[in-house]
Amino acid sequence: MTCLFRLACLALMATPFLPGPAAAQDFPVRPVRILIGPAPDVLARLVGQKLTESWRQQVVIDRRPAAGGIVAAETAAKAPPDGYTWLLTTGAYPTLVGLYPKLPFDFVRDFAPVSLLASIPFLLVVHPSLPAKNVQDLIGLARAQPGKLNYASSGNGTTAHLAGEMFKNMAKVKITHVPYKGTVEGITDVIGGQVHMMFAIMQAGYPHVKSGKLKARAVSGAKRSVAAPMLPTISESGVPGYEFTSWNGIHVPAGTSRTIIGRIQGELVKAVALPDVRERMSSLGMEVAGSTPDELGALVRSDIAKWGKVIKEAGVKVD
Question: pTM for the complete prediction?
């Protein structure tokens, strides 16, 4: 029995340890990569710096902006499910499901949600010369002159475009869509008076509101923004039920262990709760929104259904 016991001990010593709770506890033991599509990388860098300090492992930002985030997502979906490759997801990813019938990945099946990081409302901004002091005035103008008012977006099929289409549908107005190659180009022409209005993401539009170059009439979220509490929501301004908020979150390849996902989620929630991180996010118009994996998963499924309906009803096509 003693000999057999010794042999068993030797066999156990020779067997490599399998990944499990202990391995997850030691995670990470090498650099972590965050893949980012066309979204700004400021939040990923901010959180990545805090995790680098906490873990003493480098968090590397890997930008893959091509094809509206499809390249970044495809790369992440094909990565090993070991917790070392993350995808910075945004509210734009659920829209891809309705816009592209043949994506090289399934956003629900091929990714595991980890945590929401930020909620990002949009601003309904207008050129200062437009005689509309509020959303009701704007709706009145649009109904009096169907199709004459126009709105800029950052491109066909973008969240700014879909926000405008949802507004048109819910407010029962006809406003002409003018797509641009990006947010900056669209805002520039609204400032210049070539376009009347735009649904601009907070961090892009609010600086121009504060400088007086644009007028903000409402925010797109379900509640007023912490960054601009004086502005009413579109819903409370005459379009009941209107709610559009973009977001940033983290997803990892499907198959990543729940233990590792839990470890990452806990660190992300702690990072965005740090006072200096919260302050920086607030200055960018972002609201801290840490979540559980299940909460992020539910948000994704809800957005896929909501934007799929908007895309179908408006007949939105991408270039």
Answer: 0.86
